[in-house]
Amino acid sequence: MRFLFCLLALCSLSACKSSSLTPINTGSDPKWTGVNTYEVFVAVQAYTPETRLLFERDLAIALEKEGIRAVPSYTVYPNIALLNGDTFSKFLAADPRLAVLFIQAKNVSKQQTNTNKKESTLFSNLMRGGDWDTTFVALLEGGLYVQGQTDAVWWNRVKLEAKDQDVADVVQRYARELIKAMKQGGAISRLR
After folding, report:
1. Which domain covers residue 142, as residue numbers?
2. How far apart are CA 109 and CA 121, in angstroms?
3. pTM here?
4. Is residue 15 part of a domain?
């Protein structure tokens, strides 16, 4: 039994090392009182279209669980190139009950590591054979925008690190952590 516990503990530690979310900072504008019940347009600029879909879907679901109506931008604007400052400004100008949650992946890097444990030879190193693990590292900057405010009324920055095969799990964790930070900053209660 003790061996099994140690093995499970070791597995959980190694799983944690494959991905991480490191909070950098978060804040909110104390002047924003959130007098309306908002509908939130969730827009994410990610490093792949698939990742954008994952982020927007999971964030919209997480907001809905908090009682906030949310719409992923890919359902309205499948082409990410159409999402820009003008689009957001026109959207917010249409109704004071609308808000935009915009998340941007910045400084994205992709690291590849050869996991082949076989003895390397001159030719295997030249041919770059073996199994490769891909890890994405990105700075995620998020902001909540409402009508009448030029700057974000709530913001958040997080460093994300995830192996390619763990991206979906990390996105779900990010959505949970973002909602937690929004609650702590008062944004969730002001959106209701």
Report:
1. 36-113+123-191
2. 29
3. 0.83
4. no
